Amino acid sequence: MGVVRRAAPVAGPAPGALDTEVGLRRAYTAYGAELYRFALRQLGDEGAAQEVVQEVFLRAWRRADTYDPEIASLRSWLFSIARNAVVDEARRVAARPWRRTLTDAPQDSPTAPVTDGLDRAVVDTWVVEEALRRIRPEHRDAIAQTHLRGRPHAEVAAELGIPIGTLRSRIFYGLKALRLAMDEMGVER
Asked: Which UniProt keywords apply (predicted)?
């Protein structure tokens, strides 16, 4: 009879192997879903939880040389990175609450935060006002008079003492500047 050799079970990456693609894939396969569930429970947002998991493995890859299996298991080390990433994500959202409100999942989603229409309207108004402050005054006035107040172009042009074509140009370039300002603010359309 011949000797039967069995391959060693693959439980996870070898210590220090997180700096290789194979090691990182093994770690992701072993712990990715668990890390995702942890982040989802903490943040209540599927997209943010996915970003946290991605950030965990990016940080693990960058700092693979700091992992010491004698101090902690790989799972514990990854979860400590995840805790920090969750805190960073929560701080990012707290620093820009309007961004999360504008990009939230539909309200019938089980993970969508509960906000009423008034809160959303207040945040939307604040975002538009802030973006309007960032554009040139003549563009801001043209947009405010025609789009926000609903006044006819001819009336606004006569009041400002400019040709109607100039008013339309200000509106056109003002809207372009407004989109750019909102992009700089991180508002996703």
From this structure: DNA-binding, Sigma factor, Transcription, Transcription regulation
